[in-house]
């Protein structure tokens, strides 16, 4: 009887980890697993097989190393930690966001360890730490009890056969991970995407994504006479409309801007109430803002069209790009290298240390902006410049003295504080322009690259979500008297209530500069899908949004804004889903209207994207016909 008991104990301990992983997976994802198609089920069972083989590889390795105590003990700890983190991390993330960690989650950990640690630390509690410790020690006890026996018989060919099987399956998953990342069990999922990121780091591969490349410099002529008007484009990072009192938020997060626009009757300040980003990925959105090229257009256009500064150079303006960001990220440095920028200042060139995310303290950026613009004024040079902030990016670090809400249990406080801090930075910029008598001849355009989700829809951040809070952005103009007219004022007033997007900025600047009809400008202007906001925007306009193209392969899907509706095709789930929200009345997008629609009505919405090549590709991925 005792021997039977010991045998049962031995088998339970030896299979505890794989059984725990499979049981947890089915506990969390049983309904999803039930709905898998045949080919998906094959991948699922292959991931279970890999999980068992990997565990077998670890067991045999530990048995072989049992006599070398220091190495044995170290590996038991490491393997126990791996399984604990894979289990709790994967299903904790699934519980929180509705998806398993994918390539881009692991990529974020690799590329931004500081932010990853901050996010991890923010989620720690006594209960979570206690649970982690318990699971770790259970796994540790299981591994140690199973492998501490010196006499353990297995065939000589077992170890090489298991090792070869693990390698071959790993290679198989490596080449088939892009469209199956929501199918694997936790430990397989972790190994596949850690390996994929390591491979990318070693080879420079981007999972099939081109990333930002060096540009082909467009050919624009330069006027002999300098334009007297300045153009200042201010771009915020991850600033959402929803959290600004300027747009009706119940917390006083934008006191300065609210004061400014309360006295905007003169027509010099234009606030767009329904402005949107065309991507919740910075990698797509920032180049789109600066080129006017939509993510649905060929990526080659992004790399061959003029950027903001080149239009400035076309009218003989001095140009600058003053940014808080690191330009080593995703080859921003190479992309902007030949963009006609006379003065480039960023994290690397400034020599300043990291303050928030991968950027520097925005106060230093404003200081550099004021120094450089003062120098341009002294030299008699008008300018076209970009001022690029970083404050509103996760983890929303700001100087302590600027906190107006206590950070604690209030999950919105860190972000709201960052919005208030940005408001003070903008006040500093505008007061400087006024003090230097530059407001009277400076067009100021303000926008954000995208918004942010803060625990809405079970998510924090922006990349993996196209919900309304991640694509609704602020946009406003300050227009000096020299650029205004009665007709322009009337059109802009109408467009304040229309759906506009950040790729409208370049066509609008072209019109403000009066260069639309120039022979060297016209061919590029004709390719822009954005619309000049100095022309009437139609009420039935479609605004296309995607994080998926050759530049950025975040497997999120697509969405579009049409009148008062927001449609989404989500690809970052095991089974693609379609959703429809009436976002004007349902501001938090809590009621999905799609299940209630007839198939004929659904086709009406899909057909709105019939001319979009990228959309066809994404729909074919979802096995949905346009």
TrEMBL record:
Pfam families: Sulfatase (PF00884). CDD domains: LptA (cd16017). Residues 230-515 form the Sulfatase N-terminal domain. Keywords: Membrane, Transmembrane, Transmembrane helix. The chain crosses the membrane at residues 12-30, 42-62, 74-94, 114-142, 154-173. Signal peptide: none annotated. PANTHER family: SULFATASE, SULFATASE N-TERMINAL DOMAIN-CONTAINING PROTEIN. The keyword Plastid does not apply. This is DUF229 domain-containing protein.
